[in-house]
Amino acid sequence: MIEASAQADETVSRGSESLSAGAAFFESVGGAFVPRAHARSPWSEDLVHGRLVSGLMAREVERRHLGADLHPARMTTDLFRPIPMSPLTIDTVIRREGKRLMVVEVTVRSGDVPVALSTVQILRSGPPGPDVAWVPEYYAAPSPEVIGPPPRVAPKHFGEVRRVEQSVGGRRFSWFRETCELLDGHRDTPFGTLAAAADWVSPFTNMGTDRLAYINADVTLYCSRLPVGPWIGFENLDHVQSGGVAVSACALHDTVGRIGTAASAALPY
Questions:
Q1: Can you say whether residue 35 is alpha, beta or left, with left for phi > 0 and alpha for psi between -120 and 50 degrees?
Q2: Fewer CB within 10 Å of terminal CB in the chain, N or C?
Q3: Structure confidence at residue 118 as a pLDDT band (50, 70, 90)
Q4: Residue 225 contacts residue 219 (beta carbons within 8 Å)
């Protein structure tokens, strides 16, 4: 383990050099996930972007615990410490396993220090349920191809955003996709893609007139089904702020239709 840790630290040092666009955010070294330079947070070059850690946690749940008919319906991630640009390890523990439900707890550590925690509720899928008395009026989002790519205003490794400029019923809509894979040598998975993207609920709902002044401490994702393709759409649903605490929510889409919701709590930065 000491040798693996030293190897991972050496890789971090090498990863501090600039990398070409499109390179994966992490590589796996000795059982640890080693961030490359472009995995940095927009808040600090010394910290990892929280969305990427959420994606890693989802990937590990997918790899270790999901199987036939097992669907990750909810994922709540608490980002309770700044996550340094250092090798990260991930542990998962099954807290409850029944015939139709499983609860998995996921812990991310930097060295021996826990930096993030997720709880994932996994449900066994089956035939469609009965109709309900009320359903919302769904927004038919224009495809990202129709909107077209905007001029770049942010580093490419922060992903690509395509916004619907006009207000729709007082709401805003934005498409997001990653431009780099999460882990070197591994294709991104639907749950990992969705979990990483869900972190954008905070910037999409908390953005000010000229900058983002709030940083989220958590994100909760609910999904009725996993996404098809790389694009995740955010339909702004709610935002309320009192005493410096902001809570907000978005409906989530893929290019086929609605897939779930995401919510977060944030504080002024």
A1: beta
A2: N
A3: very high
A4: no
Cα–Cα distance for residue pair 226/177, rounded to 1 Å: 15
Q: What value, to the nearest 5°, has the Cα angle with vertex 121 and ends 73 and 47?
A: 95
Its pTM stands at 0.88
Closest by CA position to 105, among listed 78, 86, 83: 78
pLDDT in tens, 169-198: 667 899 999 999 999 999 999 999 999 999
Residue 45 CB partners (closer than 8 Å, separation 6+): 85
Q: What is the pLDDT of residue 220?
A: 98
Using left for φ > 0, alpha for ψ between -120 and 50, and beta otherwise, residue 131 falls in: beta
Look at the block and give the residue holding tokens 């309900």: 132
Closest CA to 168 of 211, 192, 139: 139
